[in-house]
C-alpha cells in the first residue's frame, strides 16, 4: 500500500518504554496531525520514522518499501523529509544556501568536486522558487543564524520541503509563534505541501483542526484514537487524555 | 570574468617578487611562504570550512614529502621523476595517508575527531622512527633536486628556479582549493561544519562528507610536502611531527579561518615572523605563541576577520573617520608590545645565563637579566601600555561600530 504505514512500533531507552506498539496508516496525499499530551512520545515517534533512532521492534513502510532500521540519509532518498521542533539550520550559510543544501541531493548533485554548484541550473531555479514561496526572497543572502525567529521557523520548513520529498514530517512547525505568525505559517504549510503527504506534530489544536484531514492521538506511547477531526473530537479516550486546558478546544 | 582578477594579479605579483627579493635570503623566504600557503589552505579545508580540527595535519605533508624525497633519489638509480612533478608524488603520499587515517578519524566529529587525529599523528611518528631504512630515523633522508637530467635546460638547482616551480604549484593549488569551495562537496563541508545531523536528513551521510573532504585536504597537504622536499632537499621526522602540525594550526588561525584567503595571510606572516624574528632573537617561538593566544582571545576571526570587519567601513568611505581613534591606540599598543618583548627577552636570557651563556643584545640593546632594574622597567612599560590600551580601546570600538553601520 502506498503512503506511510507504521505497525507494532516500539522503542525503549534502557528499561523505559517510550513507544508501546504504535500503529499508524497515512494515505498518500493526506494531511495527518499527531497530537497528544507532553511526554506522549510524539517526537520520539518522528525520530523513529526518520531514522534518527533505531526502533526496538516493529516495522515502518514508505510506499511499500521497508525503511525500518535505515539511516536518515537513506530514508530521505526514499522520499521522506522532516523538520525539527528545535530549529536546526546551517547558521553560517545564507538563506539561499540553506535551501540549496536541502535540494542538492534531489538534483543529482552528489559529493562532486568536479562540477561547480552554479552549473546546476534547475537546482538554482527551484531554490529561488522555494525561497519565493517561503516569503524569504528579500533575505536571500542573510546568514540563517541572523534571521528573526519566525523567519528561521519558515526556513526550517523550507529546508525540509526544498528537496521535493513526497512525504513531509513537520515537528511542531508553529512552536513559539505569535497568533499572526501562526496564521501565516499555516497558510505557508498548506501552500508548500500541496500534493504531498504531510504528517505533523502540533500542539495548537486550532491549527490541527484547520489543516488536518485526519488526526491521531498519541498518549503514553500508544495511539488511542485515529480518524477525521470530527470523530476524534468526540472520542472519550481523547477527552480523558486531554483533561485540562485543551479540553475547551475539543468541546 | 571579474573573479579571475585576483588570480591574475597574484600570478603577476608572484612573477615580480623574485626580482624584488633576488637574494638567497629573500628567495628562501618566498619558497617557505609558497609551501606554507598550500599547507595552511589545505588545513583550513578541514578547520574553517569543514569544522574539523586536525591535530596531526603534518602527517599528510610529511608522508607526501618522504615519498617525493624517495622519488627525487631515484635519479641516482637511473630512474627519474622530473623535479617540477615531484609535488604530484607528494600528492599521492598525502592522499594515501589521508585514506588510511581518515577512514578512522572521520567517523566521528568535533572533539572526538580532534583526539583521534592527535592519536594517529603520534602513531605515525612512532612508525616513522621505527623504520629508519625508509625514513632515515632521526637524521631523515636527503636528496639533490638537480640530480636528474636537465629539463628544457633547467636543472632546478638554483633557488630562483626552485622558486618558480614552487610558486607555480602554490598558485595552482590555491586556485583548485578555491574552486573546490564552489562545488557541491565544498558546500556540504560547510553544512556539516554548521550542523552535521541536519545534513543526514538531507540525503547525505555526514561521515562520508567528512571523509572525502579529509582525503582531498590530505592530497593538497601532500603537495605541500612534495614542495618542501624540493625546497629543503631533506625530510626528517620533525616535518611529520606535532611541531609541524601545531605550526599550521597557528598560522591558519592567525590568518583567520572564516575566509578562504585568511590562511594565506597567516602563512606569509608566520614565515616572516619565523625568519625575520629568528635573525633578531632566539625567542621567536614565544612571540608567535603570544600572537596566537592574543588572537584566540581578542580576535577569533584572525587577521582576515579584522580586515573583513572594516570592509563595510571602507565601502562607505568612512575609514578616515576611524583613523584618529585608531591612532590613539598606537602608544598603548607600542608600549605593551615593548613591555612584553622586554619581559620575554629578559626571561629567555636569564635561562640562557643559567645555562652558561653571557648577557646578550637584542636589536643593539643590552639585555641585563641579572639585575632588578630592567625587569622593573619592562614591567612598567607593559603595565602602562596595558592601561593605555584599556582606556583608548572603548572609543576605537565605538567609532568602528558607528562607522560600520
Descriptive notes:
The complex is a heterodimer of chains A (251) and B (405). In chain A, helix 4 (121-134) runs antiparallel to helix 5. The longest helix of chain A is centred in the middle third of the chain and has 14 residues, at 121-134. Chain A has helices at 42-49, 72-77, 95-104, 121-134, 149-162, 179-192, 205-211, 229-233, 236-241, 247-250; strands at 4-13, 16-26, 31-35, 57-62, 65-66, 80-82, 167-171, 197-201, 214-219, 222-227. With 251 residues, chain A is α/β, with parallel strands linked by helices. By secondary structure, chain B is mainly alpha-helical. In chain B, 74% of the residues lie in helices and 2% in strands. In chain B, the strands form two sheets. A two-stranded antiparallel sheet of chain B has the order 1-2. In chain B, strand 3 and strand 4 (365-367) form a beta hairpin. In chain B, helix 10 (242-255) crosses helix 11, helix 11 (262-280) runs antiparallel to helix 12 (284-298) and helix 16 (329-354) runs antiparallel to helix 17. Chain B is globular.
Amino acid at each position: 500500500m502506498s503512503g506511510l504505514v507504521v505497525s507494532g512500533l516500539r522503542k525503549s531507552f534502557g528499561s523505559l518504554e517510550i513507544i508501546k506498539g504504535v500503529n499508524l496508516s497515512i494515505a498518500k496525499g493526506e494531511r495527518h496531525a499527531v497530537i497528544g499530551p507532553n511526554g506522549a512520545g510524539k517526537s520520539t515517534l518522528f525520530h523513529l520514522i526518520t531514522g534518527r533512532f533505531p526502533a526496538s521492534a516493529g516495522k515502518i513502510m514508505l510506499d511499500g518499501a521497508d525503511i525500518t532500521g535505515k539511516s536518515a540519509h537513506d530514508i530521505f532518498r526514499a522520499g521522506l523529509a522532516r523538520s525539527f521542533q528545535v530549529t536546526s539550520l546551517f547558521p553560517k550559510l545564507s538563506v539561499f544556501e540553506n535551501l540549496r543544501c536541502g535540494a542538492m541531493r534531489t538534483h543529482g548533485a552528489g559529493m562532486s568536486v568536479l562540477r561547480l554548484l552554479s552549473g546546476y541550473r534547475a537546482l538554482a531555479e527551484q531554490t529561488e522558487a522555494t525561497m519565493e514561496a517561503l516569503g524569504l526572497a528579500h533575505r536571500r543572502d542573510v546568514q540563517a543564524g541572523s534571521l528573526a525567529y519566525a523567519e528561521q521557523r519558515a526556513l526550517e520548513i523550507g529546508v525540509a520541503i526544498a528537496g521535493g520529498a513526497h512525504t513531509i514530517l513537520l515537528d511542531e512547525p508553529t512552536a513559539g509563534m505569535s497568533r499572526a505568525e501562526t496564521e501565516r505559517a499555516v497558510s505557508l504549510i498548506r501552500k508548500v505541501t500541496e500534493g504531498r503527504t504531510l504528517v505533523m506534530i502540533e500542539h495548537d489544536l486550532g491549527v490541527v483542526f484547520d489543516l488536518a484531514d485526519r488526526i491521531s492521538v498519541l498518549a503514553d506511547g500508544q495511539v488511542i484514537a485515529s480518524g477525521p477531526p470530527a470523530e476524534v473530537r468526540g472520542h472519550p479516550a481523547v477527552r480523558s487524555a486531554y483533561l485540562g486546558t485543551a479540553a475547551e478546544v475539543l468541546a | 570574468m571579474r573573479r579571475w582578477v585576483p588570480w591574475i594579479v597574484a600570478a603577476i605579483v608572484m612573477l615580480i617578487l623574485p626580482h624584488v627579493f633576488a637574494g638567497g635570503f629573500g628567495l628562501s623566504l618566498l619558497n617557505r611562504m609558497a609551501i606554507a600557503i598550500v599547507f595552511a589552505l589545505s588545513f583550513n579545508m578541514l578547520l574553517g570550512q569543514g569544522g574539523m580540527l586536525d591535530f596531526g595535519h603534518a602527517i599528510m605533508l610529511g608522508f607526501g614529502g618522504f615519498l617525493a624525497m624517495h622519488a627525487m633519489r631515484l635519479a641516482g638509480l637511473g630512474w627519474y621523476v622530473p623535479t617540477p612533478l615531484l609535488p604530484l608524488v607528494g600528492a599521492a603520499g598525502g592522499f594515501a595517508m589521508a585514506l588510511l587515517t581518515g577512514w578512522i578519524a572521520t567517523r566521528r566529529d568535533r572533539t572526538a575527531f580532534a583526539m583521534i587525529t592527535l592519536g594517529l599523528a603520534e602513531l605515525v611518528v612512532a612508525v616513522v622512527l621505527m623504520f629508519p631504512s625508509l625514513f632515515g630515523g632521526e637524521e631523515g633522508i636527503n636528496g639533490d633536486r638537480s640530480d636528474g637530467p636537465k629539463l628544457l635546460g633547467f636543472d632546478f638547482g638554483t633557488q630562483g628556479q626552485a622558486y618558480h616551480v614552487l610558486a607555480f604549484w602554490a598558485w595552482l593549488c590555491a586556485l583548485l582549493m578555491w574552486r573546490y569551495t564552489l562545488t557541491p562537496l565544498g558546500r556540504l563541508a560547510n553544512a556539516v561544519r554548521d550542523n552535521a545531523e541536519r545534513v543526514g536528513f538531507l540525503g547525505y551521510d555526514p561521515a562520508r562528507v567528512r571523509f572525502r573532504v579529509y582525503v582531498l585536504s590530505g592530497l593538497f597537504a601532500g603537495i605541500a610536502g612534495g614542495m618542501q622536499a624540493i625546497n629543503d632537499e631533506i625530510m626528517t621526522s620533525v616535518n611529520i611531527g606535532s611541531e609541524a602540525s601545531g605550526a599550521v594550526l597557528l598560522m591558519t588561525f592567525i590568518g583567520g579561518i572564516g575566509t578562504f584567503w585568511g590562511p594565506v595571510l597567516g602563512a606569509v606572516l608566520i614565515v616572516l615572523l619565523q625568519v625575520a624574528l629568528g635573525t633578531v632573537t632566539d625567542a621567536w617561538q614565544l612571540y608567535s605563541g603570544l600572537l596566537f593566544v592574543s588572537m584566540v582571545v581578542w580576535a577569533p576571526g584572525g587577521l582576515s576577520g579584522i580586515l573583513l570587519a572594516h570592509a563595510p567601513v571602507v565601502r562607505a568611505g568612512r575609514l578616515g573617520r576611524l583613523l584618529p581613534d585608531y591612532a590613539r591606540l598606537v602608544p598603548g599598543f607600542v608600549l605593551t608590545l615593548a613591555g612584553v618583548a622586554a619581559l620575554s627577552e629578559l626571561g629567555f636570557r636569564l635561562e640562557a645565563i643559567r645555562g652558561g651563556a653571557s648577557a646578550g643584545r637584542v636589536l643593539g640593546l643590552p639585555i641585563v637579566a641579572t639585575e632588578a632594574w630592567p625587569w622593573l622597567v619592562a614591567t612598567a612599560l607593559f603595565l602602562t601600555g596595558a592601561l593605555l590600551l584599556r582606556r583608548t580601546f572603548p572609543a576605537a570600538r565605538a567609532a568602528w561600530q558607528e562607522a560600520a553601520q
